[in-house]
Amino acid sequence: MRISIIIPTLNSAATLAECLEAVRAQNFPRELLEIIIADAGSTDATLDIARRFGVDKIVPNPLKTGEAGKAAAVTHATGELLALIDSDNIMPDPGWLAQMTAPFADPCILASEPLEYTCRPADPEPTRYFALLGMNDPLCLFIGNYDRQCAITGCWTGLPVSSEDKGGYLKICLDPSRPLPTIGANGFIIRRSAIEGVNWSPYWFDVDVVRDLCVAADVSSAGRTTRPPLHIAKVKCGIVHLYCATMSDFARKQQRRVRDFLYFSPHRTSSKPVPGAKRMLLLGIVKFTLATLLYFPLVMQARRGAKNAGANGIRPGECHSPLRLHATACRITLRTYAAGVFRKLLGANQPADRSTWKQ
């Protein structure tokens, strides 16, 4: 099957070369691979790097955000499979793409996603921390809504999800009547035919697209005694996410992400509310706030994560020592959310300024 690699960019020169180098190194037929860059007006060397690596298409992203960039690139994609790869994602080995697309031999599988983030010893400490945490926002840990292997919990999600071990991947059955994991980004691959019945333009909100897939399946089965399940493969591999090199980078990205989330929430097209989701969210926020203010629960979580990482063969000083950043990340997150909510209550919430943005 032909694959379209979807990469939104905005001043991504710091990471794009490594990203594209890993794509080019894949043991995958070149004629079946299409690379599309959706650029939001980069002023650094981003476009020069893209041309140097011979990307197939460079399309404009006038709406600037990563979500808009994904939608812009998908509009120009011709592949049967769409691979959502951010400019700070690195495929960890040449067999990654073949491994990620193997589950599509099962016609029931609509999408695939790596089970974990790859933790590389040479990466910056914050990058290793978030790889072990399995998410970019520690609030998600307390809500239970995440989608990558977490060293602290020993699970890839805190939600009750039905799965079947198929050897190289877990075959996940998603139920739209329940809260869904935050599936949909950083190495997510989906059949082009699957999105024909959902609204993904002009903003491709990852979680909303997956939820709308579930609802579309639910609607299409109206009148039947049973609804066909929606299956996604959680492939037993990882992907590198160069999320941030310093905690100040994390604070900056978290502020942008929270401001965008609060601003764009009314524009999101996600369907009917899920029973229990609001209660789960509120309870998670309360637990997160108390744990961050008391501090000690965060220390215990970090210790548990280090123990789990060690049990999985990760040596001390390589990857699990960055879990000491857990309390700092939680404090930054609590301050950022509190400031964002306060700003929205005052009617001063605006999307984050991208005029000086760089990866």
Structural class: alpha/beta
Query: How many strand units?
Result: 10
Count, helices: 11
Helix content: 25-40%
DSSP strand content: 15-25%
Give the overall form.
Answer: globular
- Indicate the CATH topology: Spore Coat Polysaccharide Biosynthesis Protein SpsA, Chain A
Mean pLDDT: 89
Please write the string of helix (H) and strand (E) elements: EHEHEHEEHEHHEEEHEHHHH
Straight-line distance between termini: 31 Å
Largest sheet: 10 strands, mixed
CATH architecture assignment: Alpha-Beta Complex
Low-confidence stretches: 218-227
| CATH classification, class level | Alpha Beta
The gyration radius over C-alpha positions equals 20 Å
Q: How many domains is the backbone divided into? A: 1
Structure description:
With 359 residues, the chain is of the alpha/beta class. It has a single domain, classed as Spore Coat Polysaccharide Biosynthesis Protein SpsA, Chain A. It has eleven helices and ten strands. The chain has helices spanning 13-24, 46-52, 66-75, 96-101, 125-133, 139-143, 206-220, 247-264, 277-294, 296-311, 326-345; strands at residues 3-9, 33-39, 57-60, 81-84, 89-90, 109-117, 162-165, 169-174, 188-191, 230-241. Helix 1 packs parallel to helix 2 and helix 8 (247-264) runs parallel beside helix 11.
